[in-house]
Each structure stands twice: as structure tokens, then as C-alpha cells.
Amino acid sequence: MDETAQTPSGAPPRRTSAAIGFALPAAAVLIVILPFCFDGCGPDPDAWRVWLSARYLWLSGTYMPSRFPGFPMQEFLCAPLTPFGFAALNLATACFTAAAAGFLAVLFRGLGARQGFFAALALAFTPVLAIAGCSSIDYAWALAFLLAALCAAQSNRPLLAGILLGLGTGCRITTILYAPVLALLLWNADGAERRIPRLRRLAFAGAGAAALCYLPPLLKFGPGFLRHYPFQYPETTVVLRRGSEEVFGRIGLLGILLAGIVSGFRRITSARVAPAVLSGAPPWPWLAGLDIAYAAYLWIPMEAGYLVPAVPFVLLLAASALDAWPFRGFCALLALSAFLTFGRFGVYEGPLLLDRSLRRYQTAEADRALERIAALDKPAIVVCAGWLQVLLGHLPDARFHEVYDPERNERKEPLALGGVELIYVLRPDDVNRILSEGRAVYFMPGQDKNNRDINGVDLHALHAQPLVP
């Protein structure tokens, strides 16, 4: 049957066991990441853009995407949380991170494996998700829906799988790219004569749910909301680093290397003493998912976070190649990589701990910057780049509603805070205006170098000073 799963006589109810299998890793993940949710929205300016979009929607009743093409499912759900501060959005993301871990454990259980708890912890604490999973960015939201859709497809429930995929697409539009993975699972399900109807249900449900999610930006901007921002393709070394170390961490990469060696050795010598964790499940859906994740990343390789969906597929492929104890060791190294790393001179704090330090520094600098802006006694310009979203995010509601213009912010036009202009970058054609107006020029941390590299304007030649000495 397509939409139901039968329980063998005498076996414990599948729903109860699945609920426990979901709840245990989800609770463990939530307990560990909760302390990391109270230090701003995160160092990624896009996380602050989510906060700004949701806050503007709540205060004005007007929807403006945090960035195009929009992430409406997350943005609308976050809006009523904004009165409770940054931490409320981060805690919501943490819940979705925990849910993603729980759904991966359920998927392992549905595939007949007992190692779902270890895989769930490895997923949640792989550095790229550990960092995103306690901030306001959308990656964990989309991943939770994707993994829930995989569980539904594995259980031969195409309608539910399509709806969940559509909701994940509403959180992040690239989630729809993983429809072929669901289709492969449904194609291999029992009842070969029902394959085409199952795929039809998946397609209609997924497209319908995604279309409903994107009605707000479609009604406001028309088809033009489907756009992405121009970018300069990074250097090869940057692409490789983002796609490897920034995703898995150094210890995690060591785990992947060791897993490959163990799997290859056992395959060559036929020394397997126990079956693989997922010996009964074909690996092709997981390989397809990994290929889709890296193909999408290589198209626009701007952030390691774009590879968050790759992590569960790496774990599923590892489970298809390793037996229980090597797989547990692999999971342990991935989970450890969020908290520790190593280099030429020893062992250091891992990416998650460094991220928390950066967030605390960012919050402290933003508070000091706003105090300094309020104390300036003459017209000035502050070059902010990504700091602009952070400064706007720290404004109290009254000042935020007065200052924030989402359409000007989208076009990267100056925003006025009293007699002070907050700008992204200083362009060559802005120099004459600034000199004629006699404005003082200040910059946020690191923006003197950033502005020189991007626009060729040396702020120090304009006698610019750090806003916060």
C-alpha cells in the first residue's frame, strides 16, 4: 500500500518506536546546542537579513524577502518570534537542527540500521551545520524538511513526501533539486505497478506546496522574484576549502579519509567480518543526493553552508560501506570536528567555539558602534559592508522602523541614522560628493581593506578613521 505501513504481528508499534528513535537524538542535539543560541544572529550577514525581514514583516505587516528569490516559509514563521529577540530565532533554528537529526535517525531505522543515533549526532555537529544550526540562517530549516521528506519516501508515502519537499523549498528554493532522490526511493519501493502514480503524487504535491510558499514574493514582484545576485567566481583554492574543510572540519576530513581507507581495504582483501550498516539498501539515492549537492554548490560556490544537504548523504554512503564499529568511529570524528581542530602547533578550539567568539565580538562591536554614531556631532558617513545588517539589527523597534527601508537596503543605497549615512561601500564616484559636503568618513572593522580591494578607494586617503577605535 502506498500511504500506509503495516506492522508485523507481535512487533512493537512502528510509530511509537519511530517517535522514540526521533526524540532521543533530537533531545541530545538540542541540549548541546542551546548554549550557543544567545549571541546575536550569527556572523553571516544573511542571518541578520532574515532577522530584518521577519522584524519588518512583524512591525509593518509588509513582506520583503531577506534576499531574493525569498525564503518565505522561514521568514513568515520567524516574524512572530522577533519581539522576543535574536535568541528566539536562533532557538527556532536549533529546534529544526534537532528535528533534522531526529529524522535522519528515523531514516536509518526505516532502512533497517541501528546506528541512527550516532549518525544523527554526527549530522548535527558536523561544523557547517553546527554553526548554521544555532543561528538565524535557513539551512537547518530546509534540511529538516528534506530529511522528513526522505523518511516519508522511504516509507512509501509520496503525497506526504511531496508536501514536505515543497515546504523545504519554501525555506530554501534549492531544496526542490533533491526531488530525484525522493523519486529513486519511491521507484524502488514495493509495488512496481504503482511506480508512475507514486511519482505523479510526489510531483504534484511538491510543486503545489512550493508554489503556495512562494505566492507572497510572486504576487509582490511577479516572476522577477526568481533571480540571484551577480557574483565573481572565487579562486579554485577558495572553492576547494569551502567545499571540504569548512564543511567537515579537519578532524571530519580525517574521518572521511580513514573511512575510505577502511572501506577500500576490506573491499580489496574481502576481509569484511560484519555486514555494512546499510547493507540491505542500495546506495544510488544517496550518491545522487551527494552529486546534486556538490553540483549546486559548484554552480554558485559562495558559502560552505550551501553544502549542508550533502552531509546526510555522506553519512548514508559511509553507512553503506562500513560496518558498525568503523561507522561509529567515523561519526565520532565528524561530531568532534565542531569542537576541536588541529594545526601545525597542536589542537585548538573548533569551528563552533570560534564562531561563538566571533558572534560575541560582533555584538559588542555593534553596540559600541551605535553608541559612537549617537555621539557624533557632525554629518558623517560610515562604511559598513556586511556590518550594516548587524547595526540595523541592533536598533530598538522605534529607531528601526524610522531608519530601515527594505527596498533601499536591497539596492544597497545609503540609510540615514540621524545625520550619519550608513553605506555598504564607498565608490569612486562618491568621493567628490563627500569632499564637497565636508562629511567625516568612518569605517567598521576590516572595511578599509575591503573597500580598497573591491572599489579601489583608499579610505585613509580621505582621512577616514575606525568608527570604534
What would the principal axes of the Cα set say about the shape? globular
Structural class: mainly alpha
User: How many β-strands, per DSSP?
Assistant: 7
| Radius of gyration (Å) | 24 Å
Oligomeric status: single chain
Q: What is the mean pLDDT? A: 92
Major β-sheet annotation: 5 strands, mixed
Taking the alpha carbons of the first and last residues, their distance comes to 68 Å
Secondary-structure element order, N to C: HHHHHHHHHHHHHHHHEEHEHHHEEHEHE
Q: Can you give the helix content as a percent range?
A: 55-70%
Description:
The chain has 469 residues and is mostly helical. The protein has 2 domains: 14-338, no CATH class; 354-466, no CATH class. Helices cover 60% and strands 5% of the residues. The protein contains 22 helices and 7 strands. It has a 5-stranded mixed beta sheet with strand order 4-5-3-6-7, covered by helices on one side. It has a two-stranded antiparallel sheet with strand order 1-2. The longest helix is centred in the first third of the chain and has 25 residues, at 86-110. It is globular. It starts with 13 loop residues before the first helix and ends with a strand.
Relevant terms:
469 residues; mainly alpha; 2 domains; five-stranded mixed β-sheet; two-stranded antiparallel ribbon; 7 strands; disordered N terminus
SSE order and pairing:
Blueprint: H1 14-33, H2 45-60, H3 72-78, H4 86-110, H5 116-125, H6 127-132, H7 139-154, H8 158-171, H9 179-187, H10 195-213, H11 215-221, H12 236-242, H13 245-269, H14 284-299, H15 310-321, H16 324-336, E1 340-343, E2 346-349, H17 351-375, E3 380-383, H18 387-393, H19 397-403, H20 406-410, E4 415-417, E5 420-423, H21 431-437, E6 440-443, H22 447-455, E7 465-466
Parallel strand pairs: 3-5, 3-6, 6-7
Antiparallel strand pairs: 1-2, 4-5
Helix pairs in contact: 1-4, 1-5, 2-3, 2-18, 3-8, 4-5, 4-7, 5-16, 7-8, 7-9, 8-10, 9-10, 9-14, 13-16, 14-15
